[in-house]
Amino acid sequence: MKRIVALAxxxxxxxxxxxxxxxxxxxxxxxxxPRQVYVKSLNKTITVKxxxxxxxxxEAVGEDGRGRQRRQPPEAxxxxxxxxxxxxxxxEEDNVIHINPSVTMGGGGVTITVPVDTSLNLKxxxxxxxxxxxxxxxxxxxxxxxIDLTHVSGTVVADxxxxxxxxxxxxxxxxxxxxxxxFNAKIDVTFPADLKATVKFKSDRGDIYSDFDMAAxxxxxxxxxxxxxxxxxxxxxxxxxxxxxxGVEINFRSFNGSIxxxxxx
Length: 265
Description:
Layout: E1 2-6, H1 16-19, E2 22-26, E3 35-41, E4 45-51, E5 56-61, E6 88-93, E7 96-101, E8 109-115, E9 118-124, E10 129-132, E11 135-142, E12 147-160, E13 165-172, E14 178-182, E15 187-191, E16 197-203, E17 208-210, E18 214-216, E19 220-223, E20 231-234, E21 238-243, E22 248-254, E23 259-263
Parallel strand pairs: 3-7, 3-9, 4-8, 4-10, 9-11, 10-12, 11-12, 12-13, 12-14, 13-15, 14-22, 15-23, 16-22, 17-23
Antiparallel strand pairs: 1-6, 2-5, 5-8, 6-7, 16-21, 18-21, 19-20
């Protein structure tokens, strides 16, 4: 395993002195299979974008979210700020990259630039997750922030607690199920118009909307456990439906928010 530690004092890996950013470049070492990137953060927003290159670039963004330095307080007039080494820990082995922003790392979040064909596993507690243009498996989990996935392809598992989920998918992998869940906010997902899916919904205190022509299913029928061959219908506040005849399984679950399933192009 190759271990890279990016701190403010390491000039080879970091350009923090001039740009208020820690920056790590992980070169491509194995072209036989796509990258997998794992990021786990307590307080930071994680942003992932794509480009035509092969390397993975990790940047710790400044306090204002654009790499600029924090404003100097009036009490520090005429003084120079001494940057304490705080940064990122990055490990890489066989195209699997783990990124751990330090709890004490300053800045507004982490921006990761990846090749298009990359799978992601992102988790943050008090930040948000933003992903654009990735083709692969995306697992996204946020507790107190939003999840915003734009122009992604493949499969998605997204869960949030206090923030909304907004997803637009250009293509769906027909062989892997998708899941979207949140507790206190809405779920808004756009799929390709030719999607073939079997969809399961449950929203305790919200409504369900879709502009797909969806055939709604019946309540769940299950044995009554008496051993007498009887069955009962179970109504649990959910429903099932089929889009374009059915296909890949997609689950939606919200407690306090509504669910929107939109038809894209």
